[in-house]
Specification:
544 residues, alpha/beta, Rossmann fold, Luciferase, domain 3, GMP Synthetase, Chain A, domain 3, 3 domains, 15-stranded mixed β-sheet, 31% helix
């Protein structure tokens, strides 16, 4: 197709990014670095031009509006070029987990009806095996060659739409990956910074035609560093928030977390915001600061935001000790809701999560109606407003998770909760993970927070194992802090009894070298259950 001038803008992510590139072309859009990689930069103008070249390549491959394109790559500049290029074509990027086997990738590619695949040297074999007859372009092999020389101006796709789709595959804690489908406008306002920063007097973007002024004004935080892979929704949202609000996305390109490399990037590039996933990221950062905090100038780091997994009070306190000018907060949200607010915890981490939520979040009771604050009734956490359309190719699950109540659509992913008299919301966790022991309900996250408060415990997952008398009993799978002696089950129980009720205290303890977590930072509860049941069976049979 021939290139042409950009049509009138909508709340479309490609339209909005192009408006940002016009307004601030010379500003850094993305900066990457790693322990073994030199620093690379793309200005807004350069990123826009490269994304246009990606769009032209896909257009020539026959990819069109609504088609799905897999992005199977570790963090790199090209990940964002490809994502934006797909948006420009009105197509839909699909996040392909680079830790998946070929069989797991094939499931996602087939389920998402992917028509083309971008992958990367080092993980290419799995992508090729999963792709079948689909075209595959490889970063570090033929990617640059295939986009070089193509037009750096937009492809003519006609007017883009606020209704164009953004689709995020999420593994959750159990089951096969599922795709969550958003409209561009809804994800922009629900998760990507479109609402501005009201507390700083910075309003929402009222019209897409005002995007130039919006990105010039900014949201008060400019340089954002997500410390997890871009195939994770949280990292994607931080990166796209930076690009759609006039900021700079900083990316580590190390294959796995290197705390020293990450802190060096934050120091050298004057990061103002770090996004982490609970203790899995926070503990290595705290350990590196403990060893060598004088090496890093983090004086401009204003905020560390954790979401997706537990951030233990002790780890939070250690970060705050070495970063006294930095606010460390726990945030709550999901792929199906976007951000819902910040979490308050007791000093010792006991009790359920207390969510200070926004006006769009409530709790829906069993009767399908929002609960009255202070009623003591338990229901399911729900969000209205800018929420997804549903799940890709799953009408039944969509109807269950996104019900319409009194004419209002809600997203109700399944977290059990109640509204306290002060308006905060106590969140107990997903109902599917609840352990029923003698009729008492035990929520794993609450017990995990208590377990991880033990001075020898580095990480933990809590599951139920079969019990002849009580149906299930609580089991903790833990890894140790380096150099510490593993606690006995009696020592761990004594520690936990000080902060949680007796029936919640672990009766079984399995010590492992490393607690298995998914790339999102969420616990692999299927693995933990298998480990705990095997250990309990071995003990009951005397190893026979």
């Amino acid at each position: 197709m021939m290139s042409m001038a950009t049509p009138a803008r909508s709340f479309n992510l490609a339209d909005l990014f192009e408006g940002a590139a016009e307004a601030i072309p010379a500003q850094d859009a993305v900066v990457t670095a790693g322990a073994d990689e030199s620093t690379q930069r793309r200005t807004y103008a350069e990123l826009d031009a490269r994304a246009n070249q990606v769009a032209h390549l896909l257009d020539e491959l026959g990819v069109g509006a609504g088609d799905h394109v897999a992005v199977h790559a570790m963090n790199c500049l090209e990940f964002l070029e490809i994502t934006l290029g797909v948006f420009k074509l009105r197509a839909v990027p699909i996040n392909g987990n680079f830790r998946y086997t070929a069989e797991e990738l094939a499931y996602v590619f087939d389920d998402a009806e992917v028509v083309a695949v971008f992958t990367q040297v080092g993980i290419r074999d799995e992508a090729l095996a999963a792709a079948g007859a689909r075209p595959v372009i490889t970063i570090g092999l033929d990617y640059d060659e295939r986009i070089t020389g193509r037009p750096s101006t937009p492809v003519d796709v006609g007017p883009r739409s606020s209704d164009d789709r953004y689709l995020l595959y999420t593994g959750g804690t159990t089951g096969m990956p599922k795709g969550v489908v958003w409209r561009h406008e809804d994800v922009f306002f629900g998760a990507l910074g479109g609402t501005g920063a009201p507390r700083q007097g910075l309003p929402a973007l009222a019209s897409p035609d005002d995007i130039g002024a919006f990105v010039t004004q900014g949201t008060g935080i400019t340089r954002r560093l997500p410390l997890c892979p871009l195939i994770h929704g949280g990292a994607q949202w931080i990166a796209l928030t930076a690009l759609l609000t006039g900021g700079t996305c900083l990316l580590t390109v190390d294959p796995s977390l290197d705390a020293g490399s990450a802190l060096s990037l934050a120091s050298e590039e004057r990061a103002e915001f770090l996004m982490i996933i609970g203790d899995a990221v926070a503990r290595p950062l705290a350990a590196e600061l403990r060893r060598n905090h004088q090496a890093y100038d983090l004086s401009e780091l204003r905020l560390i935001s954790s979401s997706g997994a537990i951030l233990s009070p002790a780890v939070k306190a250690e970060l705050e000790e070495y970063l006294p000018a930095t606010k460390v907060i726990d945030r709550f949200g999901a792929s199906e809701t976007g951000g819902q607010g910040r979490i308050k915890r007791s000093a010792d981490g006991s009790g359920p999560l207390r969510l200070v939520a926004d006006d769009h979040t409530t709790v829906i009771g069993d009767d399908g109606r929002p609960l009255v604050p202070g009623s003591g009734r338990r229901g399911k956490l729900a969000r209205r407003g800018w929420i997804p359309l549903g799940y890709w190719r799953d009408d039944e699950k969509t109807a269950a998770t996104f019900p319409t109540i009194d004419g209002v659509r809600y997203s109700v992913p399944g977290d059990l909760a109640t509204i306290e008299a002060d308006g905060t919301i106590s969140v107990f966790g997903r109902g599917s993970m609840v352990i029923n022991t003698g009729g008492e309900k035990v929520f794993p996250e609450e017990v995990e927070a208590a377990v991880k408060g033990h001075p020898a415990v580095f990480d933990s997952l809590v599951v139920g194992v079969p019990d002849e008398r009580f149906g299930s009993r609580v089991a903790a799978v833990v890894s140790r802090i380096e150099g510490a002696s593993a606690p006995t089950v009696e020592e761990l129980a004594a520690h936990c009894r000080a902060v949680i009720a007796g029936y919640k205290v672990p009766r079984e303890l399995v010590v492992v070298d490393e607690v298995c977590r998914k790339i999102t930072g969420k616990g692999d509860y299927a693995w933990a259950k298998e480990v705990a049941v095997a250990a309990a069976t071995e003990r009951s049979t005397g190893g026979r």
